[in-house]
């Protein structure tokens, strides 16, 4: 989660304004493994059309039976006419259902093809531009450095001024267009690096995400972590971590719905684990993982930092991932115990990585605003991934890979809506995702309801049984500086 350090950003005095529900954009749902993408309302209408067609067809059969008992004449002719109209209406309803589904499928296929062509063009364009601009880069870098030095004030003052400007102008980084720009930028980093090394543009296209997939966002992030470790400093240098159990207490009941699960994601104690037990059954666990705590690129005491973000995107064992697994082991979770993972921002990235590791029996995964789209999950892991199209943090993880999860997306702030000016990246804040979670709980599409109902019942079914006990563990993790 993007959050401002009190030492570097002074919050505006205005009380934060929650996203206006009246201006809320609809939930767009992509069912796992499906090319059908539509709003929640439209997906809810498709089964309704099928149900209505079945009912009309049933009435048509009843009219047919009624007609058999009537003598030839005007009344029989009227009934026969109604019967024919009913069968025709049922067929029309079925055609409408198929047409809507086909239209949405074709729209998604067209959008994917367009995105693929744009990304491929961006890879080639980046390589060509970098080769052309390579001689100008030193001059640009020197000019930027000179400008930084000339501006009056200390380095901390300049950083605070830049952060304050971004907080005061959230519209600069809160839009689907900016998120798309960020996604293409992180996807093009490897292409730029190849061009700087003198490789021809065709090689970038061949090795990139739209070719053999040898290089991509993950390799760029991995190179950054590798460079940090080789430098001997603490910038992007992974360390060992230690975990402390700070509380253990009995709780009552299970969360009811997506909004309550998101609410249980911790803010400071980075990992919360709930153990559900009933007599005669193996325990079940729900693991909640916190968002980023600091955006410093220097690996110091906090494992939920920028280093872990980059390492997680690279598919490496980030400090926050290792700390979460240590907490899970301390809570008594074994490789056979069923686990549902819930995370927000970096917590979602951690949840994705833990589920993908194969070391745990992850039966459900629920993430909000995480940059883990590029993490390859094993087949069969279900759940939901919730993202805002105007949240650029999601875009830093690159494109979404194949998944069995249901992807839910909406724009947190409609075009022209008033944005809060007291926080950085308002579309990424937890309160914006809390509004989306409430919309999820009201969703009606069968695809989304199936996943949410499974997540709800996982803990609730145990919590409601006689003799059930619920134990909550909270953990605090720290890096061990200087111990890589």
Strand segment count: 10
Gross geometry: globular
N→C terminal distance:
25 Å
> Low-confidence parts lasting 5 or more residues at pLDDT below 50?
1-23
Order of strands, widest sheet? 2-1-9-8-7-6-5-4-10-3
Structural description of this entry:
The protein has 14 helices and 10 strands. The protein is α/β, with parallel strands linked by helices and 484 residues long. Among the domains are: 24-41 and 235-480, no CATH class; 43-111. It has a 10-stranded mixed beta sheet, with helices on both faces. It is globular, with a radius of gyration of 27 Å. Mean pLDDT is 79; it is low at 1-23.
Annotate the secondary structure layout.
Blueprint: E1 28-30, E2 37-39, H1 40-68, H2 74-133, H3 137-150, H4 155-168, H5 176-196, H6 201-207, H7 217-231, E3 240-251, H8 258-263, E4 271-277, E5 284-289, H9 306-313, H10 319-330, E6 338-344, H11 346-356, E7 361-368, E8 383-388, H12 392-395, E9 406-410, H13 430-441, H14 446-463, E10 469-480
Parallel strand pairs: 5-6, 6-7, 7-8, 8-9
Antiparallel strand pairs: 1-2, 1-9, 3-10, 4-5, 4-10
Summary of the model, kept short:
With 484 residues, the protein is α/β, with parallel strands linked by helices.
Features:
484 residues; alpha/beta; single chain; globular
